[in-house]
Amino acid sequence: MARSTSLSGFTEWLPAERLVELHVLDTLCEVFERHGFSSLESRAVETLSTLLQKGEVDKEIYAVSRLQDELSDDAAPKKDGQLALRFDNTVPFARYVVENAGHLNFPFRRYQIQKVWRGERPQEGRYREFTQADIDVIGEGTLPFRSDVEIAVVIAQALDTLPIGEFRLRINNRKLAQGFYTALGLEDTVAVLRSIDKLEKIGPEQVAAELQETAGATPEQAQKALSLAQIRTEDTSFVAQVRQLAEGLGGDTSLLEEGLAELEELIGEVGKRVPGRAVADLSIARGLDYYTGTVYETVLVGHESLGSICSGGRYESLASKGKRTFPGVGISIGVTRLVARMLSAGMATPTRSVPTAVYVALRTEEDWGAAQDVADQLRSRGINVEVALKAEKFGKQIRHADRRGIPFVWFTDENGNHEVKDIRSGDQITADPTTWSPGAEDLLPRIVESV
Amino acid sequence: MARSTSLSGFTEWLPAERLVELHVLDTLCEVFERHGFSSLESRAVETLSTLLQKGEVDKEIYAVSRLQDELSDDAAPKKDGQLALRFDNTVPFARYVVENAGHLNFPFRRYQIQKVWRGERPQEGRYREFTQADIDVIGEGTLPFRSDVEIAVVIAQALDTLPIGEFRLRINNRKLAQGFYTALGLEDTVAVLRSIDKLEKIGPEQVAAELQETAGATPEQAQKALSLAQIRTEDTSFVAQVRQLAEGLGGDTSLLEEGLAELEELIGEVGKRVPGRAVADLSIARGLDYYTGTVYETVLVGHESLGSICSGGRYESLASKGKRTFPGVGISIGVTRLVARMLSAGMATPTRSVPTAVYVALRTEEDWGAAQDVADQLRSRGINVEVALKAEKFGKQIRHADRRGIPFVWFTDENGNHEVKDIRSGDQITADPTTWSPGAEDLLPRIVESV
Predict the structure, then answer these.
(1) DSSP string, A259-284
(2) Looking at chain B, which terminus has fewer C-beta neighbours within 10 angstroms, N or C?
(3) Which residues contact residue A202 at a Cβ distance below 8 angstroms, ignoring those fewer than 6 apart?
(4) Contact state of A6 with B99 under an 8 Å Cβ cutoff
(5) Using CA of residue A341, residue A345, residue A347, residue A348, what is the dihedral sign?
(6) How far does the CA of residue B285 sit from the closest CA of chain A (Å)?
(7) Between B22, B150, B385, which is nearest A39 by CB?
(8) What is the structure's pLDDT at A70?
(9) How does DSSP assign A177-192, residue by residue?
């Protein structure tokens, strides 16, 4: 991690680091499939009009054009047909669902693990290219609220299987927040959400000032909005706190009640199925996104400054085709941000840096074919093997295997007798290529949790 | 495959199609790791100067720029720092090796499976975005020729494990070809290679004419060059044929002999280790690439019009850092092209279109938690399970599972008795969630070869 990258904001792993990332990805795929999510990928490019349809101007979009066209005269940006790189996996998925609706069965569940690109100012925890791992459930016409519960449960179970220590899903509901603001008499709920979203960054006093400036709040209204945002409970006791706060508000509280009921069900069910992982946190706003109900963020305990490692929510109207609508709910793990922290904080280490378990040494140049025969015998039993490329002195071949992190070196003498050496212990034993195996611990590189 | 795509040249699979692609990718990863190749990924963007360093102007490059910059005034293309999408995995890997040389041990072996982009005119078998699966071995200073043999063996073994029928690796050696042309008195060997590369497309007569026009060949020289290109043998008998053809050529034949010796070793060894998969084909040129010795192409027998599904070669000087050079050899499978043909020709079919094996039906809305408990018991034993989102009539729930392609539906009655129904046969049996399993055939979707 001390390496500098040649393009800032673009991370490339070394082989051992990539093994940690692969472990994370493999684990996620397995948990997602265990819950019936299908793997999908979307193309890297979207039309600019698709990307901008929800007014996502805060994402720094990368435009894409054929170099040939750019060097020619008609290089004028053609806004609608202009291609650009996706900045998340949700907007492309919504477009995919609309295009392929006739070939899918709803409710449809998919996972999607792909790179996304944002032309942001690079800083710690921010990347210009990074991998996101998304799960979404999307319905046709309606999608039961139960899916919001399920998404939280699946992602908590997935994160639980990773060597990342404690984490907390912080969950809120936009209906609750917006219903409260409306009942409070604040009409511009988007402006309120935007200010509340800055609570952790700028603190309550500045948020109160901003609410009065940009959302037209009185000092009392600002205070009430702030009080709501400061509610945080690990169980459903937030419901009573909100009701108390909302007492005597004159306006229509039906949206507030709807949001309260949803969040109560979610926190209750998730608390039962994955205890201690979720918290109702009424400060979560996700200001500028396309969410309409539940919103999720996730912090790594002890690494709160990293920001959310996993975010998402319910979107009622991202995808539609004529009169057909496809409401969905989903969440996305910021894999690159998470893996970078796992590496820099030393949370997980691979037992070796290469897939290879056995390095077959060469006695003479003529032995390469026989050495490959030995290697193939081992490979046929699931052992990863490479053969030396040159018949250098054994000491040199052993040093090369050692530097590459390969645990075993295989020798065959002129009479066809085989021996295998564990270069860590120095132990060397006679061995039969049709039966010998490294122990289960050494068969594949494993990722071990560091404490 | 009958679907039209909304952006031509950009393919997106449906869930069942993606399962076929995943099977191909998983199989390739396994074979590559079995031979000690490490997984790596590079960033999607390179500087234009990196991409153009080998004069690869025939690749239609996609330029990338921040939309914000493009909409501002200083949108003038800054050629050197200009970012662009990679068009293959080899050039980025060479750049990666140079940047990270201090962290790698040579000879270094890696596989890399990623999307690449080319702004080509879309046509059958050509894509603007497609997945390539590359393996390369890269040395420092020198890399034994043996690696060229190994690459051919590994890729032949990898393709052998895929449900794609017969294929042929067509292998040539640039030293052989260039040595022959030079001995023949043709100085502009690049122009000759470029013409020979068109042999299959435009036929021998037109190639002969072009050789005289662009490479300054006499009719006799053109004929000799064509005769060389028409040599094709499954064993090493090409050596005698080339020697006969080269008899009496006045020039220096040392490069020719070097190429002959290399190709003879390669065809001999590959013929021994994976019989019937490789052929010496002296028409293979790969005209405009960075290859300096061995060149590989691969055709699917019966699908020759598809073009090469797997190509590569030896590159002596793609990567260097001061006085250090990193010669390499590698090959790349065109995964998208291959999978598209597997699907359109019906070579492989998934046994079902979703990962889910069991659909747990809901008797009442209140049963969702209990149904998830049953699902978790099954999941803990490696079974992929989803739970119904609504307590609709059982018939409707069964139809939904059936449409999604899920083989089993699970029912729990009001007394907690469990039954599981195979919806294909209609058989329904009592079952215990802590012990019941689908058969091995139904545990996961499998890809079956269609004959």
Answers:
(1) HHHHHHHHHHHHHHHSTTSEEEETT-
(2) C
(3) A210
(4) yes
(5) positive
(6) 26
(7) B22
(8) 64
(9) HHHHHHHHT---HHHH
Range in A230-239, A359-368, B70-79, B162-171 with the lowest mean pLDDT? B70-79
Nearest to A291 by CA among A260, A256, A318: A318
Q: Report whether B79 contacts B126 (CB < 8 A).
A: no
Question: Degrees (nearest 5) of the Cα angle A259, A262, A268?
Answer: 135
What's the predicted TM-score (pTM) here? 0.95
**How much is the mean pLDDT over chain A?**
92
CB contacts, 8 Å: A65 with chain B: 62-63
Nearest to A97, CA basis, from A310, A266, A318, A316 = A318
d(CA A202, CA B232) in angstroms, rounded, equals 73
pLDDT, tens only, A9-42:
999 999 999 999 999 999 999 999 999 999 999 9
Question: Are residues B60 and A37, on separate chains, in Cβ contact within 8 Å?
Answer: no
DSSP string, B104-163: --SSEEEEEEEEEE--PPPBTTB-SEEEEEEEEEE-SS---THHHHHHHHHHHHHHHTSS
More confident residue, A126 or A105: A105
A130: closest CA among A15, A12, A287, A51? A12
Searching chain B, which residue's CA lies closest to the CA of residue A380?
B34
3-state secondary structure B26-95: HHHHHHHHHCCCEECCCCCEEEHHHHHCCCCCCCCCEEEEEHHHHHCCCCCCCCCCCEEECCCCHHHHHH
Chain B residues inside the 8 Å CB shell of A66: 60-63, 119
A378-393 residues labelled b (16+ CB within 10 A) or e (exposed): bbeeebbbbbbbebee
- Other beta carbons within 10 angstroms of residue B385's beta carbon come to 25
Cα(B210)–Cα(A172) distance, integer angstroms: 71
Residue A179 and residue A315: Cα distance in Å, rounded?
Answer: 17
- Cis ω before A438 (30° cut-off from 0): no
Q: Are A312 and A156 in contact (CB under 8 A)?
A: no
Buried b / exposed e along B23-55 (16+ C-beta atoms within 10 A): bbbebbbebbbbbbbbbbbbbbbbbbebbbebe
Contact A386, A392 (CB under 8 A): no
The gap between the terminal CA atoms of chain B, to the nearest Å, is: 19
- The tokens for B193 are 């290679």
Identify any residues that bridge with A324 across adjacent strands, giving them in sequence order: A321
Tell me whether A353 touches chain B (CB under 8 Å). yes
DSSP annotation of A198 reads T
A269 at interface of B, judged by CB pairs closer than 8 A: yes
B50–chain A Cβ distance below 8 A for any pair:
no
Q: At what angle do helices B146-160 and B15-34 cross, to 10 degrees?
A: 140
| ipTM of this complex | 0.94
Give average pLDDT by consecutive 10-residue segment, chain B, 451 residues: 72 96 98 98 95 70 84 54 93 95 96 94 79 98 97 97 97 96 91 89 93 94 95 97 91 92 97 96 81 96 94 91 93 96 95 97 96 98 97 97 96 96 97 97 94 60
Give me the torsion for CA of A138, A143, A146, A148, rounded to 10°. 50
